[in-house]
Each structure stands twice: as structure tokens, then as C-alpha cells.
Amino acid sequence: MSAKPSKAAALLAFFLLLFSLQADAAAPLTRDFFRDKPRSLVKDFYISRYLDQNISSQDAQALLGEVNNMNWRLFDKFAARLDDFSFKRVSYCRHLSPLQYIGKDIDCIKIGLTPYKATKLPPEKLLRIASRIAQRYPDDASLFRLVAARDFNRSVQSGPQRFLRLFNQTGNSYRESVLNHPLPPSFLTELSKEKDFNRAINKIVRNPRLDRLQRSILKLDSSALNSESNFLLGLNALRLGHREVAVWYFKSSQKKAVRNFEKDKALFWEYLTTEDTTLLKQLLQESKEINIYTLYASEKAGRFPRNILISTEPKRKNAPFDIRDPFAWLKIKKAFKSEKFESDAARNEAVQRLNSEESESHIAALLYRYRDNRHFYLFPWYDAISALPVKRRALLLALARQESRFIPTEVSYSYALGMMQFMPFLAKAIAKERGIRDFRYEMMFDPRIAYDFANTHLDYLEKFLQHPLLIAYAYNGGIGYTRRRVVQNAECFGNGAYEPFMSMELLPNAQARRYGKKVLANYVVYARLLGIKDATLFTLLKRLKSKHHISCF
């Protein structure tokens, strides 16, 4: 009598039935390709590519309902293919320059003329537009009149909601020239009750030119504001020399924090402000994360973070599924998410059935649970980079861990591809530089090729930047952004109080700001695991205070 197969074995058999080799990706995509593909960012990427082909309106229409996330880039591609006037009209109206809205119909103005674009129009022309749309869109007309008036007092008198819309949507130039005035205390009280005031706090504190506004929010009642706003108010108080006020805001930020990272950040800044070392001990005891704040506390205590796993201990080389097929990984995640396991042991057994040298990153993703307090710092496909200088290896691993957790087929909302998350245009440019004539975007789903392309890109970035944090900013936000906003910005990474942390927290680009801190933490851990003695967090932070030694623009 044969034994009954375990649930794990049955699940593995199910996976193997699901995975079949994709059709040759070099061939033109057809509608049949999408028939069995789950709605996802991966599918959106292929839909975007499909729309680049010479297809009919009917072909495009058939996939319209299959989109997972309709961003504007994808919308414009549909507009170009569909025989649909409404799509074409929206796309057309969105892309007009400010002066082109003069004389356009009311609905087109509503679609495309944003408050930011409105600031670029001469006041008299903007007032004419406001008069035209006033009957159908009175709120927009009132906002455009405010923009045209360029009057701070009138903006305040318009009420908290309209003031916040004006402030949040008009851009730095308008805010600096028109709205940088002290806010009346009674109006501040009204503003603090509005959810959109959190956005305004972010813009006020992170723009050094809004100094009058910064002083007016020094002792703001922040009880209705979120953790991040309280944190920023703490930084604002520090810059203005009010340490006790800053500590109060940092404590409030900790209480309101939803994510562990937010709490760690606020607790760390309370330590920086008070120099109370018991707060670092608290940070190490309570945090379940490895980040720059806990690493600082660890180095201060003379120890290395615990619970680091560098391998899933695979027993075979090849994965039982195609790791280069993005839809295969989607099906695995969906299957595990829907499966009700009898116990953690049964779940782990099912995961281990997929374990291999090729699939370590997938296994780590399936095993990872925040409450377990285990940190995977893997070395997948390490042989592909083992001949590189050790600091380059550490940097590649640090970037890959943050970009994709080493998942070879990751696709982002902006269609960045693969383990190293290359934007299609950059991947294509590097392929051309490397002389790859038959380049296909699917090549970025091969982890070895992804490492190779990233290594080439780092060769370019390191011609100008010699610090892992600055390289991370450039890898994420572009080298032009890093040059303008970091290297050539005299207010960034100087010798002021609380540097370099203050500059790291006040970087305006939210994505680059978070990304840089996480990559820096990854780099410190991998450097330690690889035996790089001069790559401690303390050493790297010290180097940031001398930008001329770590950049050559």
C-alpha cells in the first residue's frame, strides 16, 4: 500500500505542473500570450511592450481590462492605439504647455491645467481662464484666482483646505516667493486638523528657503499629525535651537509610529538630541530591524547585529521552476498565500521542497516573517561576482538586496526590471555600450546578466562618486539629481550640528532618501561579512562630512 503524499509534496507537484517554458520572448507578443497570465505589474510591463507593436485598436481594447496598475505612461500608450476619443482627449490635454490652455475648451482645462502649471501663466491670462471655467468648476476657478493673486494674506483667508491645496500643488518656486510668511496661530490650529497638513509639513521642513514658515510651526500642536510630521517638527526645532521642543516631538513620533523603522528613527534622534546612551540600549532591545539606527547602536556597543542568515542551506543546484520566468514566481507566491498549512512545520516543509542554490532568494522571501526577527543577507549567484574587488562585491550585494531582495524577475511600478531593477532605457543603453546586438529586456531576468550590467553601471557612477551612500542616491535617483541636490548643494553634508544625519533625513526626494539609508545599512553588513575592516558605519559617516573627498564633479 503506497504512502499518502504529504501536503508539501502535493504542492510541489502542483508547482511543476504550472511551470512551462515561455515562448521565445524575442518573437512579437500576441494576444494569446496574455490569456493565462495573472493580473500583475509583470503583465503590465508586457502589455506596455505589446502596445509598442503595430497592433489594432481591437487588440488594445482586449487588454484594457487586464491592467493591474494604470499609470499615465501606460494610459498614453493605450490612447495612441485605441480608436477612443475620450482616451486621446485626456492624453492630449494632459500634455499641453501652460500657454496652450488659453482658448481651449473648459473640460480640457479641467483635465490638464494643474495648479503647478497655472503658476507659469501670466496672472491676467490665468484670470481669464478662471472666469471661463467658474460656472462648471468653481473650486478650480477659485484656486486659479488665488494663484494669480500671489497674495499670502488672501491665501490664508481662503480657508485651510484651499490654502493646503494651493501650498501642496504649486511647486517650490511659488511657495518660496508667495507663501513663505508666518502662519497666524489661529490658522495653524485649523490647518493642524487637516490630513493634507502632513504633506505641507514635509515640504516646509525639507526646504531651507521656507525659513519664515519653519519658525511659525516651531511649537505647533501636533496631536492630530502623523509620526513622520512629528519627526520632521523635531528636526525643525533642532535646527532652530530648541532641543527640549525637539525631544517632545521625537517622543510623540515614537508613540504614533506604525512601522518599526519610524520608531527606530525617532528614538535614535532622541538619543542624538539628549546624548542619553540608555536610548541606544532601548533601541537594540526593542527593534526588530537592521537599519542605520540600530547599526549605529550596535557599533557603539561594540557588537555586530544578531540573527543574520547568509544561506537557506540548499541541497541541490537547480530550482524546480524557471527562475527567469516572472510569471512562475507570481504563481508560487499566490499558491503559498492561498494555502492553509496545518502548522509552521508543514509550511516550512513545503517551502524547502523548492529550495536550491538558484532559488535561495525565493525561499527567503517565502520564509521571511517580521515577527521571527531573522534577517536574510544572502549571497546568491556569488560566483558571478567573486572575481571583483571586495568593495564592489559588497556594493552590488547591498544594492541587489534593496532593489529586489535578489528576486531575478522583480518588476516595479515604473517597469524597472530584474534583480538589479534596471529601467528599460538604461538597460538598452548599457547593452548598446557592451555591443550586445540581440538584446532583449527579458535578459534582465537573468541574475548573472543583471549583476554584469549593474557592475558596468557602477563603473560609470564611481568615476564621479566614491561613497556607497552617494552611489545609492545616483543608482536610484540618477547621477544628475545627485550632483545637483547633494554634491553641489552647500547645505548638504556640511559640518553643521547633527551631520551627516540631518542631511540624510532632509533630502527632498523621498524614494532616494529611504533607499540611500537602506543601501548604506546593507553595505555595512555585507562589508563586515566579507571582512572589509574600514567599512564600518562610523567610518562611512565620517567620510560624508568631506564631500570633496568622495566626489569629483
In short:
The protein is mainly α. It has helices at residues 7-18, 41-51, 57-64, 72-81, 85-94, 106-112, 115-118, 123-133, 138-149, 152-157, 160-169, 172-179, 185-191, 197-205, 211-216, 227-239, 243-256, 260-274, 278-286, 292-300, 326-338, 344-352, 360-367, 390-404, 424-433, 447-461, 468-477, 479-487, 501-506, 510-529, 537-543, 547-550, and strands at residues 308-309, 375-376.
SSE inventory with pairings:
Elements: H1 7-18, H2 41-51, H3 57-64, H4 72-81, H5 85-94, H6 106-112, H7 115-118, H8 123-133, H9 138-149, H10 152-157, H11 160-169, H12 172-179, H13 185-191, H14 197-205, H15 211-216, H16 227-239, H17 243-256, H18 260-274, H19 278-286, H20 292-300, E1 308-309, H21 326-338, H22 344-352, H23 360-367, E2 375-376, H24 390-404, H25 424-433, H26 447-461, H27 468-477, H28 479-487, H29 501-506, H30 510-529, H31 537-543, H32 547-550
Parallel strand pairs: 1-2
Helix pairs in contact: 1-22, 2-4, 4-5, 5-6, 8-9, 14-16, 16-17, 16-18, 17-18, 18-19, 19-20, 24-30, 27-28, 27-30
Oligomer: single chain
Unreliable stretches (pLDDT < 50, length at least 5) are 1-25
CATH topology of the domain at 382-550: Lysozyme
What is the CATH architecture assignment of the domain at 382-550?
Orthogonal Bundle
Spatial strand arrangement across the major sheet: 1-2
The portion of residues forming beta strands comes to under 5%
Structural class designation: mainly alpha
Largest sheet: 2 strands, parallel
According to CATH, what is the class of the domain at 382-550?
Answer: Mainly Alpha
Strands, total number? 2
End-to-end distance, in Å? 75 Å
What helical percentage do the residues reach?
Answer: 55-70%
Q: What global shape is seen? A: globular
